[in-house]
Structure formats: structure tokens, C-alpha cells
Design brief:
Number of domains: 1
Strand content: 15-25%
Number of helices: 6
Distance between the termini: 15 Å
Structural class: alpha+beta
Helix content: 40-55%
Shape: globular
Oligomer: single chain
Largest sheet: 5 strands, antiparallel
Radius of gyration: 17 Å
């Protein structure tokens, strides 16, 4: 599965996901633009590092839509075929979301924890940052000891990926994309 993070505007990004045996998915605009690292790229890195199979990108790789992507318009499909594909996509996506179990929740919690910790190390201290760190500590308590250990072990890898990808994202011109082959966090040419 190829995942394209597209810088679609000065303060906007979109995504395009190509899968071998499923329709191409798109989302533009995607939520959570950040000049350093968009929200969905945080999820991508975290889910890859933790080996999550039923997080956002695992669901999409399994044929779902994570509840937020839609089938790309145009292409070789007729309008009727696109509608049928979209209905199938939504049904499969809903089924995968229901069956994701703890990994879906862990994806959200871990992405939040890594994002807050990484950004806190990069930005000047503020009241908002202290509040976010407090919320992160409360979130961390909700994790099992095994989940905390798993997150702690992945931290150096995730932070290194965040640093590398943040530099690439900031340098990306509007209209260009960083493309990945799931679950690798190395951009492909």
C-alpha cells in the first residue's frame, strides 16, 4: 500500500492511498495540519513503530477506510461502479473499525503521547504545553504496564523518524508529496 502525504496548500495537506486490490482512497483536506508534522503522519509513524495491525493504516491496508477516507473520483471506473465500490468500502471499513479492539485505541493514545512529548521538546514552554503534558500523563496512566513498556521502547525510533520526516515535510513545496510503502517510514522516490 502506497501512502501519499500531499502538501496541498500553505497550511493544508491531503492524502492519497493506493492499494493493490482495493479502490484508491483520498482525503483532502486532511485534519490536523502542522508545519512540522501532520496529524496523520504522526499516526503512520507510531503505528509502524508499534507494529499495530488494526490502527488507522492497518485498517486501510486490510481494505477499510478508517471511517474518514473516500473512494477517489474518476479513474477507470464508471460512476455506477464507483458508487458500488464506495458502498463496499464503507461497509468493510465499518466492520474493521468494530473489530479493531484495543489496537485502535492504543493507536490514538500512543500517537497523542508521542506527539505531545516530541513537540514539548521542540517548542518553548507555555501554559498550553504544560496542560497538554498533564493530559498526556493522565493518558499514560490509562495504559497497561506492557503498553507503557512498548511505547517507551519505541520512543527513540519514533522521535528519530519524527525529526527526519519533519525536516522533509517542512522542505516540501506545495503540490508535492512524501510517499511511503506501508509500514516503512522511509519515503520512496
Amino acid at each position: 500500500m502506497k501512502v501519499h502525504f500531499i502538501r496541498s496548500g500553505e497550511r493544508r495537506y491531503g492524502m492519497r492511498i493506493e492499494r493493490a486490490d482495493a479502490p484508491v482512497l483520498v482525503m483532502d483536506p486532511a485534519p490536523g495540519f502542522d508545519p512540522d508534522l501532520p496529524h496523520d503522519m504522526v499516526h503512520f509513524v507510531v503505528e509502524a513503530a508499534l507494529g499495530l495491525k488494526t490502527g488507522v493504516f492497518g485498517q486501510i491496508a486490510a481494505g477499510g477506510d478508517a471511517g474518514s477516507f473516500h473512494v477517489e473520483a474518476g479513474g477507470a471506473l464508471s460512476a455506477k461502479e464507483r458508487q458500488r465500490a464506495a458502498r463496499k468500502q464503507v461497509a468493510k471499513g465499518a466492520k474493521l473499525i468494530k473489530s479493531q479492539g484495543r489496537e485502535g485505541e492504543l493507536s490514538e493514545l500512543a500517537a497523542f503521547l508521542f506527539d505531545i512529548a516530541w513537540r514539548s521538546s521542540k517548542r518553548p514552554e507555555s501554559a498550553a504545553q504544560r496542560a497538554a503534558l498533564g493530559e498526556a500523563e493522565r493518558t499514560r496512566v490509562s495504559l497497561s504496564a506492557d503498553e507503557r513498556a512498548r511505547i517507551d521502547a519505541a520512543r527513540p525510533l519514533v522521535f528519530a523518524d519524527f525529526e527526519r520526516l519533519s525536516k522533509a515535510w517542512r522542505a516540501l513545496p506545495v503540490g508535492d508529496a512524501l510517499t511511503f510503502e506501508w509500514p516503512s517510514t522511509q519515503p520512496i522516490g
